[in-house]
Predict the 3D structure of the following.
Amino acid sequence: MKLKFPQDLAIIDDDPTTIAFAKQVLKSVTSFNVCTYTDSEEAFQDIRNKKIQFVITDIHLPGVMGDELIARFRKLPFGVTTAVISGTDNFTTALRCFKLGADVYTKPATKNMYKEIVRQFHNRIYRWNSSIEVILKNKEESRKQHSKAQSATAGKSRQTILFVDDDEYLREAVASSLGQHYQVRLASNGQEALGMAEGVSLVITDINMPEMDGFEFIANLELQENYQTPVIVTSGFLHKKLRFNDLVKQVIEKPFNAEELLTYASAILKATEGRKSA
């Protein structure tokens, strides 16, 4: 579904001076309702209960490091976009935060830094909503064409795509679009998808999911003997800069539109068929 303004924005820092500075900088930002926390556990409970999707956090909090907190966010059933503010002495932890999908910024926290973080949050929301508008526009047409496509391919064997994402609405929209051309299996997390991956022609998976994330899911696929099904990774974070195994043929940044996903899927499936027949 589309994200509406204003969104809640949680700021977590055990330094009251930093909290006061952030509130002062962001007081004129009407697109976010700023909630501040000095206690990480209180923050996590509020984020979970209120389904807060945007967080700015210090990397070093009493009793918990930033990467531990982000790992807990990733287990929530809704997506949390996180910006971490790190000192130069926390490089290893900062790298772990980055690998968990957070954007990392270096102290000292400045007015321009907070404005840049909010700008990036805005961009994510606008890109996501634009994609949803495209999907909604095409959805009705997809339904009308679905029966026509089924008739045209009657008697023919259609390739099967496994789409893995914890967003129920996105699963439905992608199934409607790709279903015009391929058979589609749907899974909400990596654990569920492992039992559905056999016999498919292509796997498309998100990274940030509960139960089993995309990294672990792909690693498990690679462990299966002679498993060579190509994989497309979709992610709202910067995972395309990270190294995946050889199964991954494409990384698509979220939000994406239906046409973009179909183009990549078709190209990879054609290339795979070409190698098999060569």
Summary: The CA atoms of residues 3 and 125 lie 6 Å apart. The chain has two domains: 7-126, 157-277. The mean pLDDT is 84. Residues 111-152 form the longest helix (42 residues).
